[in-house]
Write a structure and sequence with these properties.
Number of domains: 1
Radius of gyration: 16 Å
Number of helices: 5
Order of helices and strands: HHHHH
Largest sheet: none
Distance between the termini: 23 Å
Shape: elongated
Strand content: under 5%
Number of strands: 0
Length: 120
Amino acid sequence: MTKVRLTYTLALLGYFGVVITILVWNLGLRPAGEIPLYVVLAFLLIPLAFPVAGLVRGKPYTHAWSTFMAIYYFVVGIWISGGEDTRWYGTAIGLCSVLWFLGSMFYTRAKARALRSAGS
């Protein structure tokens, strides 16, 4: 497996890990809270819809700017993991976002090198 393919796979695993963790927790495991479910899902899932097409297509520019979103979800995960009953949920989001960040960062770098070497 090439470095480009490996980092692409890691980025997508992290990205979809964040999406699936949010969905599974909020639609199945979430304890009743004071914030309505649709508000939580809107704030957490709508931003994730923006980079999905570029990430799946392997566009380096989308991978590059999506690292900023991964940092946001890392902070959200750490914040959520502060609660006693949400520790595993927040930790899962944090770990998936780190995987997304590192995969996208290294994918952008590896893809740029591959494109540069193919052009010369």
